[in-house]
Here is the input.
Amino acid sequence: MMQVLPIQTSATTTECPPTGKLIVLTGPSGVGKGTLMRSLLQRHPQLYYSVSVTTRSPRPGEIDGKNYYFINRSKFEQLVAQGEFLEWAEFAGNYYGTPRETVVNQIQSGKLVVLEIELEGARQIRASFPNALSIFILPPSFEELEKRIRGRGQDSEESISRRLVRAKAEIAAADEFDIQIVNDDFEMALAAIEAAIFE
Here is the structure.
């Protein structure tokens, strides 16, 4: 059952309006979630994208407040203690979380809200939003996923090894989600996501 914010008073507000919906996009690191999400938002500006909070450093070209909200660990832990996150997880030595209040307000106002999050966070969302549409993005093969991660040139060998070990466990969880889409052909994968959201 959705947790309603204290400002809501009517018992009927515990249910989302028919048009409001939460869409969760997840999959292993390097599978192309971010690229698919950017194209989806360009094509459908009516979608509300929830910007995550993270303790990791910005990558080249990333903008605070657009790609992520970048904060330090102590501030993140303070927000966790205050119950400010809809979900949060630690991944590759950094925290990631979804701000609760904005997402709940947007859904209750009838918006389609999309999240691009890691597996652990996606599981937390399913527990609190059982009606959310969950989409798992798969690589064409594990070998292709490794090639993509290495091709980014952003991670140390140790970090790549950790990501690959974690990716195997994440791929094994794909069946937990409503829809699985293989990101082999980018346009076909994007079209499949659109079909799932707007059917």
Observations:
- The chain has one domain: 11-198.
- The chain is about 40% helix and 20% strand.
- Helices lie at 33-43, 73-81, 100-108, 119-128, 142-152, 157-172, 186-198.
